[in-house]
Amino acid sequence: MSTSPSRIPLESVDAANVLSEVCLRIFRADEDVSSCEQFLSGHREVLLAAGIKNLTSMDRSWVGSPDHTVFMLLDAAGDRVLSGMRLMRRTAFNRLPMERAVSTGYPEVSQIVESHMDEGCGEFCALWSHREVAVAGIGMVPMACAGLGVMPVVDIRHGFAFMGRNMNAMQRSLGFDIMKDVGVAGSFDYPTSPILSEIGHFVSPESLSNSQEFVQNFVRAMAEEPSQCHELKGRFGSVAYHIDNGLA
Length: 248
Prior knowledge:
It contains eight helices and ten strands. The chain has helices at 10-17, 33-49, 97-102, 108-115, 131-135, 141-150, 168-173, 213-224, and strands at residues 21-28, 68-75, 81-89, 121-129, 158-164, 177-178, 188-189, 196-203, 228-234, 237-245.
């Protein structure tokens, strides 16, 4: 689907046009419960607007959990949550959202996850964004890069991402390998027909060599300086992308 400003609501174009500075907050869910509630509200709003009412990553059981790292993109004033993502660490007591979504019909998903438990595994989930972020030309890649950058910090070597097939190009640009030996030739009828989703697998740090140069530079910069600022080229001009890394 085109993201041309002529095909989207004027209010989204106006909001994107003035989006010159944003801040990505990274924190553990048990360290800021009120911000977790903000995240939930924004995620639910975006999904309901898209007609999606039943998604395993929408539940609030993760709020306050030390096994969840939260990524929340805010406007310059810190008043509006623009987009978000979570990184959930798999434990013996808590299965990943993608397991809960499809493992009844496809038990091999949990089998693969469990085979990586000793090295640490987790899932990038609840990835959502308000439309003006895409219109501004920022997209979700910088947030995803930050997620890859913190994997070693939270002891996750194997990162999974369960996304719609329309996100295939983004997953590959980040270095994820699409798992073709699960589901039906790698695809799952989820969250609702006719949408098809796939599982991407990122092994840290080996998979980084399969990613685009921008991704590699971003992730390596995070290793050197956890909190930083990137100047991103947006559709309407430069956007200052600050990272406030609370894990450092």
